[in-house]
Predict the 3D structure of the following.
Amino acid sequence: MTAAVDALTPDTPDAPDSTGPEPAEKKSSRFTFRTLTSGSVLGALPFFAFVAAFLIIPIIANLIRAFQDPAGRFSVATMAEAVGPTYRQAFWLTTQLSLLTAVIGGVLGVILAWALVSADGPRWLTSLVSSFSALASQSGGVQLAFAFFAMLGTQGMVTGWIESIAPGAMAEFSITGFLGVTIVYLYFQVPLMAILMLPAMGGVKKAWYEAAASLGASRFQYLRDVAVPVLWPSIIGSLLLLFANAFAAYATAYALAGGSLNLVPIVIGFLISGNVLLNPGLAAALVTWMMIIILAAMGIRFLLTRKSDQWLSN
Amino acid sequence: MIDRPNAPTVSTRTSRSSGGRGGNAATTAIFVVALIFFFLPWIAAAVFGFTRPGEGITAAPLLESLQNPKALPAIRDTLLLTLASTLLMLALLVPTNIFLNLRAPQLAKVAEMLSVLPLVIPAVALVSGVSQFYRAVAPAFINSLWSLVPLYVILSMPLCYRAIDAGVKALDLRTLFAASSSLGAGTWTTLLRVVLPNLRVAMLSAALLSVAMCLAEYAMASLLLHYTFPVFLVEVSNNNPRGIAALSFITIIITWLLLVAISAMSRADRATDTATDKVRKN
């Protein structure tokens, strides 16, 4: 469910920026920060104190620790060690897993989203699929890992089916390996992509196709020159979110592979829970690098969705 | 959030005419494949968990996993954590949200931005920061099971804050307060008898989201060395894989039902709103 909660990121960046800072500022222009009374600050205090104590301060403490040597002096040695030869492999493997699940999940998710916006069939089927896409996109976590053990593990149901059709076909496959984890991640990445793309693909108007067709465009030309150019910021933005989602996921990967898969979140987990006694700042440095990567992905996504919101809002 | 994807679907599904039969068969095929993909792991979990070679359908693996002496304490602690986190979430977010929307809208923007921050901060990162800081400042806090309560509130805040915020924004608080005080009610009477009853759907949605999240949270509990239900699942999975598959199946069904309840509730709420609007117009 941790990944599941990450999975909900979709709504967030869109909704606040789509309303945009400009109209909000206009509406509340009579409430500038100067008009704040001490009473209104006091009422807001519990919430801000809570967020500071359990979110902001821990993150800052983590950041400070990442830039200290064991004696407490400022140093970039720990940050350098975190991307040094010992841990570089973990970053590379996590990047590969995140890229692979983002791209495959992205392609399949766009196909699913296309089917959802253009279905002519019975309405109950469409809403059933879109409801279960929403549920599946949030179903990462340890339970998902065990369901996939039951499906594709050595005694799994589907493993048995495949073995009975093509004996030996599953001999090389392991659900705890890189390929297995990729398949499990796709369980939430594909529906997440579909849900992220639905608003944008629903915003592509039929009149645009009619207008292009009346000017003599073929279906392919319409896709190449109209639909894809309008949708690409949403597509790239959603892929970045899928990438960040896979990069941060811990519970699913750990329940599946335990320590056998060298992923950044799992390495950080080992360092935090004290299974490895090394430089105590190392976990902090790895976390800092991980957050730099995730924040970069989300930052680019933020810029891209602003652009596509402008295009699709008219 | 669950019903949101339906909105564009419903509004655009009639807007297509070209494509015809071929497109229809293609979309139906995609839907069938998608539904198989969504359900197959859980069907496999149910089949694997509720059968045993030579015994046919049996609940024995499930019962065995529950007979583990660690099972019931883990389930009890998870339920207590869920209850405490949900109550703290409501106690923190509902008054703050009403207050900010009423008295300090400029701070409400800041609070909204802060509330979505946990989405870009992985659970592993938050745990790392929390253990860096509190192990130095208050080690007893981090060693207590209840240290998970504020962390779970932070984790569920992006979703819960938005659920409550949407409910509060849908009310015209100033008018409610003006109307209520013209009838002689004080601030507290208005809050308790006018505002809170109008927020019950938003509060219930937020509570269910928090419950769904707390029941399944694994990363923080295991990394801070607390023994909750998901941690129990992972620890026992090697000894009794069938029992754990059965438990996974049951918990995911409970989670899905909670989330479906939210979307049904908000839909029912919208339906009553439109119904009362119609009555008003007549």
Q: What stands out?
A: The first helix of chain B runs from residue 6 to 12. Strands of chain B lie at 51-52, 56-57.
